[in-house]
């Protein structure tokens, strides 16, 4: 899929809002500036968040809960995680049952950490647009494509 500009990237994120439910995991992979946070911001805005969602780069986990958003969301940025064992300390496994997890930099956890996630990968194209590819797990097949 091709996303022409930052607005299209956020709009794609917003389109995911009608599809997500507690227990879902969406991973966002790509280089710095590829649009991971833009997708997350679009999704969070469509779930009801007023204002712009901050990047969770320094907090690592940015939680959102009703009534701020339609369903509980944990926006996670693993960029500063050096050892996959550190992820266990974040409590994501417990939170996953009742929240949507948006995970930036999922590769820091290892290739098999979230096998059931909708795995989105963004690339920066030569014309400045974004390329988006998805690995769609069984739990998402009836909901995909957007």
TrEMBL record:
Cell compartment(s), UniProt: Cytoplasm
Pfam families xrefs: TsaE
Single Gene Ontology BP annotation: tRNA threonylcarbamoyladenosine modification
Any single Gene Ontology cellular-component annotation: cytoplasm
GO molecular function, one term: transferase activity
Keywords: ATP-binding, Cytoplasm, Magnesium, Metal-binding, Nucleotide-binding, Transferase, tRNA processing
Similarity remark: Belongs to the TsaE family.
Protein name: tRNA threonylcarbamoyladenosine biosynthesis protein TsaE
Organism from which the protein derives: Sphingomonas ginsenosidivorax
